[in-house]
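Appendix B. Chain record.
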Amino acid sequence: MEGGFSISVACEECIAEGDNAAVYPGAPDCCPGLTPIGCTSPESDGGICDSCSGAQPCTRCGNGHCGVGENRCNCPADCPG
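Structure tokens predicted for this chain:
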């Protein structure tokens, strides 16, 4: 084939399962099928839940499996005490 032509590919950046999505305007979203949840986690001794801010793990919270980034504090439905 002869002649002038161009090809353009647009890629949308998204955050994969278990990775953290930053919390600021214009930040990439979680990939399709994933939901951002809080980054709260149990203290190292297993005690109360430590709060945090600035990041949200992208997970499949609510699917019945305690996956990467999920714990009893941020996804009790999948990760019971």
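Further analysis of this model is presented in Appendix C.
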